[in-house]
Amino acid sequence: MAEIIGRAGFHAQHTKNVSERGAVLHEMMRELDEDSVAYWAARNPNIVVADEALNEAMVNDRAGGFRTCTDRTEVLDYGADRVRRVKRKFREDKPDRNTGRMKGGTVTTSLLVAHLPKSLCVEIPGHYPVLDSKTGQPAVDYDGQPMMRSRWAARDRDQARRYFQDVVQYLAQEVIPGGQEAVLGYDIQHSESTPHVQVIADTFAEDPKDAAALRVEASRAWFSHREVRDETGRQKSGPAKLRDYHAGLKQHLIDRGYEISADFDEERHLVGMGKDEYGRVMDAKHHIDRLHDRAVADHVKLNDWDASLLAHRHELEDKEADLTEHQRELERREAELPALRRRVAEDSRQEVLATARTQIQEKVQQELASALAPAQSLLDRRQEKLEERLAQAAWDREAYLNATAQLERMSRSLRPLVEKWEQRNPHTEQGAKAQSHAARIRGIEQRAAEIRANAPDPDADPEAELGH
User: Fold this and answer.
1) Side-chain half-sphere of 243: how many Cα atoms within 13 Å?
2) Has residue 169 been placed in a domain?
3) How many domains does the chain have?
4) Among 67, 89, 83, 94, which residue's Cα sits nearest to residue 18?
5) Quick one: pLDDT at residue 35?
6) CA–CA gap between residue 128 and residue 81 (Å, rounded)
7) Coiled-coil annotation: which residues (predicted)?
């Protein structure tokens, strides 16, 4: 929430006809009778009737101070007494030669309004509807919502009273030409949108030539006057005087310790506006402030949305990049589809072929097993016979070997005799018989060698042995 800054200032409005004072006081001190309260509450939507009892009407006590006012006629009577002391006749308005507007009349009465600074108030948000200046109906903002404005109440009414009394004191001493005696009365009001004080004063000051008389000093106080000049010697204008008054009031209040802005620009304080116009301007200001607050809030939202949108945009860009890469991958895979289809078809064909091959092999093996069963049985029987024959061959070989060994032993024992027989003369009968015996024995040795050479080998191929 923004820091509340206290603003100090006042608003001045002037009138020429003394008879208008009654109407001013009828609104200003309306709390003095119920009919006035009802009348003005029907015309001013800012009035909170329940708070009218908090208002304080004061009248000049003719002794240098003020007292509580119980009847507006007390203020009118005091003002009338001062009018009677003015020696010079009031000028009447005359039409301007160029514009035709009435001007030139004597300003007799000033209405001054000062509001309590916001720093001395508490805010009641959304108390009043903002009314359309043309239709008088509640206004709505751009999104159709009723426009509301705050009401401000005094944080401490005793402090507010002291503040307003200090304002009246400054105005009486430094601004109003007749001083405290020229202040006919004032009213502290707590029943509207902001606590404020209304001061009604005349423009009369003591005549230096006649202590019992008064003279009009409106120009000297509020407008250009030939005797009122600035430090350069130039005639001082009304706006320049107002700026000095506001600067003096601000310093006067700061010196008394009130929480107000020290660098307040008086030109922003709507100097010279009447109470009604000021109220309208304040309504417009509340409207502008609200629009400003809404604009700031919307700006913050827009910034948040911008940040969010930026984040979403980055996220979408990332997703778009991912999608692009995904698209490229899909396109690559799509390009590979024909080859993949061919590969799948080939793999399927190979799988079918492998399955068929396996089935065929199993079928062949089954059929071979069925077809070869008799042959296997025959082979088994032949194997048995072969084994029998091998066993017999091994026995025969052993027998051959034994016989061979016997023949070799016989050959070795007979060899000397055979050699002797071979040396006999074959031409003799004895020699011929001897050599015949020797040849027979040699034949036996040769046969024994053949038997030994042809003896079955137990490590040889049985079929080869059998074939041999």
Assistant:
1) 9
2) yes
3) 1
4) 83
5) 96
6) 41
7) 309-343
